[in-house]
């Protein structure tokens, strides 16, 4: 298995007590027996998850490290190794299903279709599919792409938005699929495609990094709840992850994490995102609930 990075959590098992079933499910049993939690992440998706100077960091990574610490307490382990596996969007669900990872901590949208294949934790961000273009080319959104080439990342909701438009006869573009956002944006910079559709939270950092050569066109095309994802076949793992996330939310940690990753300069970058906390997400932080509506295409 291509583990890239590892760290150990060695925390006192005393501060938080959860009601927990005696018999662990298959994934939780594997975590307990190996004393290892394997996390899947996206290598170039700042600020959600990315690599910087040999470390895996990001907003989702910080959240999941806290989840790992609380799982360690739940399982009464003296230590818990956290290993990281880089994945593409298309690889994430198969990696959960075949046991390559235990938890995916990236920018995955909690959709009804995905809930048939995997389980989700609490929402930690609301994204929206958006279109990134080269500045000054007169493209204001999907409606201006007739006869042009539109890039999407395989297995993403951005690809689904495009395919919905195509089925409705509102297309006229040539669709080019890429394995990851970085490759799609590089094609845009090189003039090989005319636009990229992807979650805005992945595109905003790349637009800032371009020095205004790349800009987001138009308004978001969807409302998408992002959350950590894990296997469906382990009710005890779901119980543990949800209990840990509720604890983190109720303790007020999420506001501090949000400020670090969305309001301050990004580690390893020369800019910040200056994205204010939305009322919808703030309500999630104050009143954590596992209830989620399906993502909405606008």
Helices, strands, pairings?
Elements: E1 5-9, H1 26-34, E2 36-41, E3 44-45, E4 49-52, E5 55-57, H2 59-75, E6 80-86, H3 92-97, E7 103-104, H4 112-115, E8 119-120, E9 125-127, E10 129-134, E11 149-153, H5 157-167, E12 174-178, H6 181-189, E13 195-199, H7 200-209, E14 214-217, E15 222-226, E16 229-230, H8 235-250, H9 253-263, H10 279-286, E17 296-297
Parallel strand pairs: 2-6, 2-7, 11-12, 11-13
Antiparallel strand pairs: 1-6, 3-4, 4-5, 7-16, 8-16, 9-15, 10-13, 10-14, 15-17
Structural write-up:
This is Amino acid ABC transporter substrate-binding protein. One of its GO terms (biological process) is amino acid transport. With 298 residues, this protein is α+β, with helices and mostly antiparallel strands. It has 2 domains: 5-125 and 225-297, Periplasmic binding protein-like II (D-Maltodextrin-Binding Protein, domain 2, 3-Layer(aba) Sandwich), CATH 3.40.190.10; 129-220, 3-Layer(aba) Sandwich (D-Maltodextrin-Binding Protein, domain 2). The chain has 10 helices and 17 strands. It has helices at 26-34, 59-75, 92-97, 112-115, 157-167, 181-189, 200-209, 235-250, 253-263, 279-286, and strands at residues 5-9, 36-41, 44-45, 49-52, 55-57, 80-86, 103-104, 119-120, 125-127, 129-134, 149-153, 174-178, 195-199, 214-217, 222-226, 229-230, 296-297. Strands 1-6-2-7-16-8 form a 6-stranded mixed beta sheet. Helix 2 (59-75) packs across helix 8.
Quick structural summary:
It is built from ten helices and 17 strands. It is of the alpha+beta class. It folds into two domains: 5-125 and 225-297, D-Maltodextrin-Binding Protein, domain 2 (3-Layer(aba) Sandwich); 129-220, D-Maltodextrin-Binding Protein, domain 2.
